[in-house]
Specification:
Distance between the termini of chain B: 44 Å
Order of helices and strands of chain A: HHHHHHHEHHHHEHHHHHEE
Oligomer: heterodimer
Shape of chain A: globular
Strand content of chain B: under 5%
Structural class of chain B: mainly alpha
Distance between the termini of chain A: 37 Å
Strand order of the largest sheet of chain B: 1-2
Radius of gyration of chain B: 19 Å
Helix content of chain B: over 70%
Largest interface: A-B, 41 and 44 residues
Number of helices of chain B: 11
Chain lengths: 371, 295
C-alpha cells in the first residue's frame, strides 16, 4: 500500500511540474503555523480556504456540468442561516449544526434543480440568480425571526484556539477539494461522473442519446454543488460567529465566479489559484494602506511622498485593482491564469495523452517525440 | 391609489424598457451578456450631475455631453476589450462585471474628490413642477419619460424594420454566420448594435437620474431588473422587452403598495414573476429559441 503510494508519487507526480507545485502548495499550507504565528495571516488563510471550497464547488457545478449557476450564494447562505438558526433556537453544537446546514443546502440544490431542468444557457443563469435574492428579501422582511439585516451573532467557534480552527478548516478543505477533483476527473476508471458531466456540458442531446439519464446526473451535480457550497457556508458561520444577509448577496455569487474564471474554469486547481491570487488583494488592502501611512511619516522627500500617497489611494480601492487585474489577465489569457501557466510548463503527449514537462523532448511513457 | 400606481408603472416601465431593449439587442446580435449595461446608465447620470452641479453647465449641453460621451465610451470598450474575448462566454461575463466595477470606482473616487461623500445626491428635474390630469397631480418628469420613451421606441422600431442597416442587424441576430456569407460585415453590425445599446442606456440614465438621484453603487438593482425583464420577455425579442418592462414595473409598484413589508419584498416579487414565467414558458413570453439552443 505504502509502496504503491510512493510509486504513484515517484512516477505520477514528480515528472509533471504542475502536480509538484500543487503538492508543494499543500505542504506549505500545513506547515505555515510552524513558520508564523501571526493571527492576521492565519485568519486570512482560514477564510481563503473556506472560499476555496465554495469556489471549487461552483467550478464543479458550472464548469464541469455546464449549469452556469449565478446564484451559488444560495447554498452558502442557506447552510449558514440553517446552522446559525439551529444554534440560536436550539443551542446545538457545531458538530450537529454543520451537517444539518449541509443537508438543507443539498435540499436547496435539488429544489433549484427542478425548474432549472427545463432551462439552459442564459435562462438558467438568470433563474438561479433569482433564488438567493428572493430569499434575502424574505429574510429581511421576517426580521422578528431571522434578525433582519443585522443577522444572528454569538455563534460558537469551531475550536477553542485559532490554531485548532486553522487545521480543521485546512483538513476539510484538502479533503473536499480532493473529493471534488476525483468526482470531476474524466479519466477515472472507477467514477464515471466526471466523464458524464463533461458529456452533458458538451452536448446534452448526444449524452441522452447514448443512454445517460441526464436528469439524474444534473440533479446529482446540483446536489454535489449544494453539498460543498453548504459545507463552506456552515463552516463560515462558525468561523465568523455571525450570519447576515451578506451570505446571500449577489457579490458573493460573483466572487466565486470571478475566482474560478480568473484561475481557469473546468479545472479544479484554477479555483484554488484564483482564490489565492485575488483574495489577498481584498483582504490585505487596509493593512497595506496602514503600513504605507506609517512609512510615509518617516520620510521627508516630497516627490516620493506624493508617489506613495498615490499608491496608497489606489490600494485603498481593492475593487479597482481587482477589476483592472481581471481585465488584463483575461485579455491575454482568456482561458484563465492557472490554465495558461499549465500550458506553458506542461505538454500533452500527442500519442498517449499523458501530461509531460514542457522541456522534455519525448514522452515519458511512450517516447513519442513531443514537438 | 390606482392612479399613482399607474403613473409610476408607466414611468418606471418606460425607463426599464429602454434598458431592456439595449441589453436584449446586444445579447441577440453578439450573444454578449453585458453586465456593465446599467453601469453606463450610472455613468451618464453622473456626468450629467458633475457638469451641471460642479461645473455649472446648462442642462442641454450637459445632457448632450453625457449621452455622446457614454456612447463613445461604450463603443471603445466594446472595440478594444469585449470584442477580443467574445468567443469565451465566461470571460465576457467576468470582463463586463470588471468594467462595471471600474466605472463604479471611478465615479466614487471622483465624487469623493468633488462632493466629499458617496451618499445619494439629487439632480434637478429636467422640467420641474406638477400638472393636473383628471384631478391627479403628475410630475412633469414622468410625462417627459413617457414621451421620450415612446419616441425612441418608435424610431428604433422604424430603424430596425425599414432601413438596410436594421435589416442587417436582425439578420445577424438570427444567424451571424449566414449573415456574414450574405455580405454583411458582422463586426461592424456588432459595433453598431453596441452603440445603440449604450446610447439607450445613457438616455435611460438622463431620464431616470432626476427621479433616483446618483450613487456609485446604484447600477446593481437596475441590472437585476433588466435581466429579469429580458428573460421574462424572451432574450432577443424587442416586443417582449417592452411588455416585460411594464409587467415588472407593475409588479414592483403593486408589491410596494399592497404589502406592509413591501419595501423589502419588491425584488422577491419581481423575481417570483420571472420564475413563474420561466417555469411555464422556458423561452420567456416572446422568446426566440434558436435551433442549437433548444433543449
Amino acid at each position: 500500500m505504502l509502496r504503491r503510494l510512493f510509486k504513484n508519487f515517484r512516477f505520477g507526480v514528480l515528472p509533471v511540474p504542475g502536480r509538484v507545485i500543487a503538492v508543494i502548495f499543500f505542504v506549505l499550507l500545513f506547515i505555515t503555523p510552524l513558520l508564523t504565528k501571526n493571527s492576521i495571516f492565519l485568519d486570512f488563510i482560514i477564510q481563503a480556504n473556506i472560499l476555496v471550497i465554495f469556489a471549487v464547488s461552483w467550478d464543479l457545478l458550472a464548469g464541469y456540468s455546464g449549469q452556469l449557476n449565478f446564484g451559488h450564494a444560495l447554498f452558502f447562505g442557506v447552510a449558514a442561516y440553517g446552522s446559525g438558526l439551529l444554534y440560536d433556537y436550539l443551542h446545538w453544537q457545531p458538530w450537529a449544526t454543520i451537517p444539518l446546514g449541509i443537508l438543507i443546502a443539498v435540499a436547496a440544490g435539488i429544489i433549484t434543480c427542478f425548474p432549472a431542468l427545463r432551462l439552459r444557457g442564459p435562462y438558467l443563469s438568470l433563474l438561479t440568480l433569482a433564488f438567493p435574492l428572493m430569499l434575502s428579501g424574505i429574510i429581511i422582511a421576517l426580521k422578528d425571526y431571522t434578525g433582519g439585516e443585522e443577522g444572528i451573532s454569538g455563534i460558537p467557534a469551531l475550536a477553542d484556539t485559532q490554531l485548532g480552527e486553522y487545521f480543521i478548516i485546512l483538513l476539510v478543505m484538502t479533503v473536499s477539494v480532493l473529493i471534488m477533483w476525483k468526482l470531476s476527473d474524466a479519466g477515472s476508471k472507477y467514477i464515471r461522473t466526471g466523464l458524464i458531466f463533461h458529456a452533458i456540458r458538451e452536448d446534452e442531446i448526444a449524452a441522452r442519446a447514448t443512454g445517460i439519464n441526464t436528469i439524474r446526473y444534473k440533479l446529482l451535480a446540483f446536489a454535489i454543488g449544494g453539498f460543498f457550497a453548504g459545507l463552506a457556508g456552515a463552516l463560515f458561520t462558525h468561523v465568523a460567529g455571525t450570519v447576515s444577509v451578506h451570505t446571500l448577496a449577489l457579490t458573493l455569487s460573483f466572487q466565486a465566479i470571478i475566482y474560478v474564471i480568473f484561475g481557469g474554469i473546468v479545472s479544479i486547481y484554477g479555483a484554488v489559484v484564483g482564490v489565492y491570487t485575488l483574495y489577498p488583494l481584498i483582504h490585505f488592502s487596509w493593512l497595506a494602506q496602514r503600513r504605507i501611512e506609517v512609512f510615509i511619516k518617516t520620510l521627508s522627500a516630497t516627490p516620493l511622498v506624493d508617489f506613495l500617497q498615490g499608491i496608497r489611494a489606489i490600494i485603498g480601492r481593492p475593487e479597482l485593482v481587482l477589476a483592472v487585474l481581471v481585465i488584463v489577465i483575461l485579455l491575454f489569457m482568456p482561458e484563465g491564469l492557472a490554465v495558461w501557466i499549465r500550458d506553458k510548463i506542461e505538454r500533452e503527449c500527442p500519442r498517449c495523452k499523458l501530461a509531460n514537462a514542457a522541456w522534455r523532448r519525448e514522452c515519458r511513457a511512450c517516447s513519442a517525440p513531443l514537438r | 391609489m390606482a392612479e399613482i400606481i399607474a403613473i409610476y408603472t408607466l414611468a418606471n416601465g418606460g425607463v426599464y424598457a429602454l434598458l431592456a431593449i439595449g441589453f436584449s439587442l446586444i445579447f441577440g446580435v453578439a450573444r454578449v451578456i453585458n453586465m456593465a449595461h446599467t453601469a453606463f446608465l450610472m455613468l451618464a447620470i453622473y456626468i450629467m450631475f458633475y457638469l451641471m452641479r460642479i461645473q455649472g453647465w446648462g442642462m442641454f449641453e450637459a445632457i448632450a455631453v453625457a449621452v455622446v460621451g457614454v456612447t463613445l465610451l461604450g463603443l471603445l470598450i466594446y472595440r478594444f476589450i469585449i470584442n477580443r474575448v467574445r468567443e469565451h462566454h465566461a470571460a465576457v461575463l467576468l470582463i463586463t462585471i470588471a468594467i462595471a466595477m471600474i466605472l463604479e470606482q471611478f465615479v466614487s473616487w471622483n465624487m469623493m474628490a468633488t462632493v466629499g461623500t458617496t451618499d445619494m445626491q439629487m439632480i434637478q428635474k429636467l422640467i420641474p413642477g406638477y400638472i393636473d390630469i383628471f384631478g391627479v397631480r403628475v410630475l412633469i418628469q414622468h410625462l417627459v419619460i413617457l414621451g421620450a420613451t415612446a419616441v425612441i421606441i418608435i424610431i428604433l422600431q422604424l430603424l430596425l424594420t425599414k432601413t438596410r442597416m436594421g435589416i442587417a442587424i436582425r439578420a445577424t441576430a438570427q444567424d451571424a454566420e449566414v449573415a456574414n456569407l450574405m455580405g454583411i460585415s458582422a463586426s461592424r453590425i456588432l459595433l453598431i448594435s453596441m452603440g445603440i445599446a449604450t446610447f439607450l442606456a445613457a438616455v435611460a440614465g438622463i431620464l431616470w437620474g432626476p427621479l433616483e438621484g446618483i450613487r456609485p453603487g446604484m447600477w446593481g438593482n437596475p441590472l437585476v431588473i433588466t435581466m429579469v425583464i429580458v428573460v421574462l420577455g424572451g432574450l432577443g425579442s424587442i416586443k417582449g422587452s417592452i411588455i416585460g418592462a411594464f409587467i415588472i414595473a407593475l409588479v414592483q409598484q403593486l408589491s410596494m403598495f399592497l404589502f406592509t413589508q413591501g419595501g423589502y419584498l419588491v425584488t422577491t416579487f419581481v423575481l417570483l414573476a420571472m420564475v413563474i414565467v420561466l417555469v411555464v414558458r422556458p423561452g420567456g413570453l416572446f422568446g426566440i429559441m434558436l435551433e442549437e439552443e433548444r433543449l
